[in-house]
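S2.1 Query sequence (Acyl-CoA dehydrogenase family protein)
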Amino acid sequence: MSDETKTKVLHGGEFLIKESEPQSVFIPEEINEEQKMMVETARDFVQTEIWPKLDAIDKQEAGLTVSLLEKAGELGLLGTSIPEEYGGLGADFNTNTFLSMEMGTSYSFGVSFAAHTGIGTLPILYYGNDEQKAKYLSKLASGEMKSAYCLTEPTSGSDALSAKTTAKLSDDGKYYILNGQKMWITNGGFADILITFAQVDGDKFTCFIIDTSSPGFTRGEEENKMGIKGSSTRALFLDNVKVPVENVLGEIGKGHYIAFNVLNVGRYKLCAMTTGGAKRFCTISVQYANERKQFGKTIASFGAIKYKLAEQAIRIFVAESATFRTSGLINDKEHELMSSGKSYSEAMIGAAEEYAIEAAMLKVFGSEVLDYVVDETVQIHGGYGYSEEYPAARGYRDSRINRIFEGTNEINRLLTVDMLVKRSMKGRLNLLGPAMAIQKELMSVPEFGEEPTGLLAKEMQAVQNAKKAILMTAGMAVQKFMQKLADEQEVIMNLTDMLIEVYTAESAILRTQKLATMKSENEIQPYVDMTRVYVSDAMERINIYGKHAIASFAEGDELKLLTLGLKRFTKFDLVNTTKLRRNVADRMIEANGYCF
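Output structure tokens follow.
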């Protein structure tokens, strides 16, 4: 891509058609003193209050999680995103990202924490009127009041708008009478208020704030779950529950805006938390490998184990890079919108919506990185990994839900391409021009210019070429299927996987290039090694995803042409990934934990 395509700040989805400069991205090494204090507070809380009580939390010892949430409130951890005028800290988005990543080490308590501070609080912060904010936010920030988010029903999961819960205005016009059932509600066993969705007049999807002390409200029994056993998960029942009209959140019939915009943030924060959890389990893996001896040597000295340790670290590093890159974009967008006259809430909503595509991709990537890491943690532990006496088993069980939370990974893969196409059709994203240019390039003789020079220049060139592979594949898929593309879910998911590989690989490159301006050559070498390995593997995966996609809709000469184009755009010289992985593993083995 030419210099004309470079930009300092990208709009949502523009990473596919524009380049970014290293100095434009936010990286975790730029953490400031205030953020360090927040991280240290959260880390001390988790290590002193959560880790020693994991068994009691998992057994849902009466009142324990509630008391821990209240302690978190006393420390200011529940109100970081809430403005100071409502009893919070008013921290910026980057600070909240650091906090989320740290709280990702708190096992199932982190689920209770995230449900309260995220989807349980943000709807009021984003959409509440002045009276609602004054009534609830300070109590949510302190932990005096706990919240839950009630969207899922027995017959509506991914298809949330098909909810059957009804809301009928009372004859005197003072209340809405709600009837229905909600399922899988995190914090359902102790929440004081519920952010609940119901159909007004049968077809107006609307959000309500419900007081759980209301007559007609009842809770089901705790669900017997595979993992995250310490989080309360219940079905909730509404039997003629009277909700004051002043407890309508937002506007009648516009509850979907609340549901979807809050989920954008929830998806992003889930990636931050899973990345934090993955770091924890990578460290557990390294420490066990350093202790366990077989055949007279620690298993950390074996190549097969080094591969696992290094691959854990590489995927974590890439996930963290993409997470903080996106955090910086959202943070800057919030400031931009507030500078233009938007309110705090409007700015937060607008920034979250702008980067909804990136949030969906990160939710998929982060949850699957954690799944990989905990799976390999079990494997490194061998038979001990299958024992509840060791930490690997709990991590393995707890991790699995993340691919279902906040919209399944399949739904998020479908949403990613759907949002890209819709933004292109609305003129928000110029995909047509670059896609047409790629088709012309595909028909031309390849030009062989000078080899790129500079740190990771070849890797960046490879990523830019991979973007062409995506535009080529997506462009042909749109031409083939037109309005029926949405029905070709396998193709869409292949395209999303290509997009995820490009975004994450580019994020790792940009972070490492920026680090090169801040650290010595020796200090950044492991980051260079990790990035080179990831890009090398990513190019192979992009090629495979592309093959699967084009084979779904092309044949004959057209298939041959697209296959040649795919090979051309995903070509990458072989890298000695074995050596590079060993370098990464050796660093961690020496440090006795994840150290990047």
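Confidence is low (pLDDT under 50) at residues 1-5. The two ends are 31 Å apart (CA to CA).
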